[in-house]
Amino acid sequence: MPRTVRKAVIPAAGLGTRFLPATKAQPKEMLPVVDKPIIQYVVEEAVAAGIDDILIVTGRGKRAIEDHFDRSIELEWHLERGNKDEMLEWVRYIADLADVHFVRQKEPLGLGHAVLQARRHVGDEPFAVLLGDEIFIGDEPALAELMARYRETGASVVAVREVPREQVRRYGVVAGEPVGEGLYRVRDMVEKPDPAEAPSNLAIVGRYIIEPEIFDLLERVGRGKNDEIQLTDALRMLARDQAVYAYQTRSRRYDVGEKLGFLQATVEFALMRPELAPDFRHYLFNLVDELRTGRWPGAEQAAATRQAQPAPLKRQR
């Protein structure tokens, strides 16, 4: 019988260079989608799947993540004094959401190395990994879907999604044998392959249930793509020793580590909010009409930006 998955690991040590300059002094995981930071959506997914023991792997400049999940006595006092009960409830909810722990990845040596930092906390039991810059939403949390497949198979499970062949170079890619609806027995996997050499277009996306043997393999695997310790390479070794499965989740995925995915998530999550949706939908309809008819006031500025992206201003000396 498979053991119970009780702990989750969220790697959140990346530098967030795609969002510079916004991430120069704040973690990308703290960028808000509407009014909630990215990392909170990820933690809430783990909690919704039944996991409340969470280790977040951070790095330098990530203290804001720790502060977000801690108590803020001064803020609570201010809200309570101002009779802002709803806001007070939200602030306390965040601090009580889960038992959140932190460990630092002291060198940026890749996703596999970040997961390896969780070894002491996880111990000898299966665990979940949720990437800190991907949000999933659906009738059932993506992680809950994987946990159900883990209970069925008793083996490690990774989430996958079909992507256009030209995009496989951005992902770990799985070669698998179909064994059920959306479920594959993994035969091989490769990190960021050339599209012409990719074994399929089934890309690994940011949710995993992994057996603890992965830690020994991460110690041995050595550096791979981009001179980093890749989790995909260790999972490939694991699949040679024991069963590993891939599952196509039904949840909708937002890659909020990319600007386009972040903007898509912001728009769609705003449309899901009852207090925002009517006015925001009206705004979007008007904007689309202006874009279609060429009456959008920002059209000329957008055209100029496409022609010449302005360089950062240099300080006069």
TrEMBL record:
It comes from Thermaerobacter subterraneus DSM 13965. It comes from the Bacteria. It catalyses: alpha-D-glucose 1-phosphate + UTP + H(+) = UDP-alpha-D-glucose + diphosphate. Pfam families: NTP_transferase. This is UTP--glucose-1-phosphate uridylyltransferase. Residues 7-267 form the Nucleotidyl transferase domain. The keyword Phosphoprotein does not apply. GO terms for molecular function: UTP:glucose-1-phosphate uridylyltransferase activity.
